[in-house]
Amino acid sequence: MSYALSDLQHGKAECRLVTVDRAGEQHLLHDLNVTTQLRGDFAAAYTEGDNSHVHATDTQKNTVYALAREHGVSSPEAFLLALAGHWRAQPWVTGTWLRAEQFAWERLPANGHSFVRTGQETRTAVVETDGEATTVSAGLSDLVVLKSTGSEFHGFPRDRYTTLAETDDRILATSVTATWRYDTDTYDTDTPGLDFDAAYAAVRTALLDAFAGTHSLALQQTIHAMGAAALDAVPEIAEIHIECPNKHHFLVDLAPFGLDNPGEVFVAADRPYGLISATVGRA
Amino acid sequence: MSYALSDLQHGKAECRLVTVDRAGEQHLLHDLNVTTQLRGDFAAAYTEGDNSHVHATDTQKNTVYALAREHGVSSPEAFLLALAGHWRAQPWVTGTWLRAEQFAWERLPANGHSFVRTGQETRTAVVETDGEATTVSAGLSDLVVLKSTGSEFHGFPRDRYTTLAETDDRILATSVTATWRYDTDTYDTDTPGLDFDAAYAAVRTALLDAFAGTHSLALQQTIHAMGAAALDAVPEIAEIHIECPNKHHFLVDLAPFGLDNPGEVFVAADRPYGLISATVGRA
Amino acid sequence: MSYALSDLQHGKAECRLVTVDRAGEQHLLHDLNVTTQLRGDFAAAYTEGDNSHVHATDTQKNTVYALAREHGVSSPEAFLLALAGHWRAQPWVTGTWLRAEQFAWERLPANGHSFVRTGQETRTAVVETDGEATTVSAGLSDLVVLKSTGSEFHGFPRDRYTTLAETDDRILATSVTATWRYDTDTYDTDTPGLDFDAAYAAVRTALLDAFAGTHSLALQQTIHAMGAAALDAVPEIAEIHIECPNKHHFLVDLAPFGLDNPGEVFVAADRPYGLISATVGRA
Amino acid sequence: MSYALSDLQHGKAECRLVTVDRAGEQHLLHDLNVTTQLRGDFAAAYTEGDNSHVHATDTQKNTVYALAREHGVSSPEAFLLALAGHWRAQPWVTGTWLRAEQFAWERLPANGHSFVRTGQETRTAVVETDGEATTVSAGLSDLVVLKSTGSEFHGFPRDRYTTLAETDDRILATSVTATWRYDTDTYDTDTPGLDFDAAYAAVRTALLDAFAGTHSLALQQTIHAMGAAALDAVPEIAEIHIECPNKHHFLVDLAPFGLDNPGEVFVAADRPYGLISATVGRA
Hints:
- The structure is a homotetramer.
- By secondary structure, the first copy, chain A, is of the alpha+beta class.
- Chain A contains five helices and 13 strands.
- Chain A has helices spanning about 45-50, 55-70, 75-90, 195-215, 220-235; strands spanning about 5-15, 15-20, 30-40, 95-100, 105, 115, 120-130, 135-145, 170-180, 235-245, 250, 265-270, 275-280.
- In chain A, the strands form three sheets. An eight-stranded antiparallel beta sheet of chain A has the order 2-3-4-7-8-9-10-13.
- In chain A, a hairpin with a 6-residue loop joins strand 2 and strand 3.
- The termini of chain A are far apart.
- Chains in contact: A-B, A-C, A-D, B-C, B-D, C-D.
- Chains C and D meet through strand 1, helix 1, helix 2, helix 5 and strand 10 of C and strand 1, helix 1, helix 2, helix 5 and strand 10 of D.
- Strand 6 (about 115) of chain B pairs antiparallel with strand 8 (about 135-145) of chain D.
């Protein structure tokens, strides 16, 4: 019997890369977790154990560290684009999928070289190539936000299995995962490109502002508002995908103890949780 | 400005469902983690906060537990098919994505109602519907295996960034994630269908046998052998996707301490790790 | 045969409690994870299954939520002291061990009721009672800090198994876990007590300042400096215990690629890690 | 101002050590996670950054791997005793705390060198020395067990905050963490010592048998029965400490859907959970 092979991919996952730029008065720190995946003509390795086309994952790891020295790390997107350029030029490689997580550090006031990890969220970037085509996406995960009022939920269908009460005031809490794709023109030219750090910061601010500023009738509505705000903030974004768990905070029933509970005491639940998502693009 | 909405989805994630079937002399236990996602005509919730088409995620959770009582749980796939049938019939729902993890318990010898969690792996199942079409997939994750010999790796390209030595004897260790799709005919008929539990057990055995029995020249080769073995074992499988981290075990250099190390002392590394994947179908 | 029972304890772990204080213009949010453990005359439950002295863990959970309503949550320490007072008065309870984790939220600028989770660290508090005696401890975990210079390590003993090179410039990174005990007088009186929030903030600042400001010849030295700084900052602290993993950042050897690496490219390692600890008290 | 230092400790945590014994027809695999901590006269490192007494944590790691080659790994306890002997002989070291986790692998039938990770539990061992005195403890964590009947809970005190109903049939599920201390005579002699592997296996079996075989009126009672069974099974054990979360499985109320639920459909809860513990020794 014979078999059909597809989706062949190999690489090195989670290369932890920390760079220190000592050029200025203050050190610049980049803290990344880089994964590389190569696509190409690798079938013989699967069928015969013939590795003559297989760039070892150890080599892929070395390449991450060497290119960090050769190109520096100005942003995760720029670094992945350098990696993509390297691998595109190698024999037998027809495509790549490259991903980085970046962890945020805040400078401490004492001096220019001391830092504290800040925030819950992780910045993400993906560069994907297919032959000469390149796609750059950016994102974030674990941006945890909460509103203690300004959220309602009612008007949903009631069927045999519906018990949920309608509410016009609840806690709305979520952990935002967002991924947005930049227009090709923004990075695939010889002219100076997009400032990926500024774009990231603008999207993060837009998401927070929209979350806080939207009087929410459904988490869906908040998601749409966040996506629209991101598109408004950064014209180079083609579309954004947002996924939000509804991190339920249930009002505790204190009546058995002779107590009222006017929106003051909640239990934060773990599982199950609502899970809502959408892609927002330009019309 | 106006926006384009797509990929609208909402549901309840990670409903922990444990059922006890007390009909026989020995209790039968099913331990599932169920996620439901509905697709359909939900745009007004995003743009207007109009929830009149939004089956609340709380209702989706209730439906999981109610259908567990009404239909029982014979296998995760059968249970998800029952859920899919329910949601297909609801207004505004045009598609579903339903997933279950199942955790393995082994009966203790003392009596018919005592159990111990066994194994590292989690069984998975996904049922996806799009209108009348249904797709059933099954899988497993975290099946952790190791061979202390019978694995080589050499003949790979050497470029400027290659430092890895070739080897004709190494430890090969991985944590298998596999997902296979069943042919439509196996479940989309009125005749008695596939025994999903038996199919799962046959695939698991095939994967383990192929991992152990393949003298490996590359993890790629082992992946192909495992995929082919699964296809051979269960004719109803259309294709299987396998992803394997290469959980590196490095031989410790003991020479600085005046000691040899003939394949006896290793350090198990966490990150980075190789990551290899492929889809194996029928030719 | 008969057995000796000791260390009897039972309670409810990880009660997630979120309170919203709506009294002022801006909402005040407290986000806690509370664990209660009672000690006392519970032997009959163990030996006979006689639960007549066993305050159910469900009751302990209810008590957490009810007291949150009755007393409010001003600080984790104050809330645990209220819980301790409740349980001390119950029959069969001779002691308690009560713990809270508190998660930090930062107010978003848009309005008074929107928040984002900030920082990596978790604030902790433990109140322990033994009869009439009460001990209050506070702490933090996962305060992740890094210095990109200003850290040396040399002069350590070299034996048969030593291969580490001496260094006069390395990255020093750690995740601080600290626990400090307050003097009894600070809370066990009728006079207005310690401001636990202010004390926590002062210790956190002192730890960060000392970490950043200490030119470090050993992580041990930094730990001592942090402990001393905390004692200096808050006179009511009797002693502080600090545990710090040495989160190694190894300079990557780029010489095989014809590249130098003047302190610019590092790999952040996961395991193993150094682990250093000490208790610093007043002489 | 001067400070009092105590509890000084440093070492290397989580050295992942895998050994392959190739002497026999079948390979023997040991998979450990080893942590070492030294105690002694290290104050100058804290106060002055003087490392002349500080055995580097890197050296401690090297020692783990070198001694694994020199002594082999027959059991985690025996390996830690060899480590303890090494460190006791070093200058400035007055005590040690050494811990190992061991992960279980089951041989696959295909050949003598292929393995699959089995079980949820982790075996643990701690060797502690203080001068010439040595203490050996063993244990396990994450042994997850469940009974679908044969568990009751009633007769507990009812106060203002009690709402829990009494029950004479519930699911009892827990994840056992146990640690037992061996009598000094069993390992501190020149005569052949205790078979630590056999003792571990006997305790594990005793815990499972007692869990399954005890008709439980309280998780406390089950804990006592497990502890007593362990002491009965292995005479060399002085005492055993057991901690068990009560992993609640709540019967789902299906009445709103017109369905009964005769002990068939449960939700497995995450947090909060009961937490019960005790130490059982010999009278």
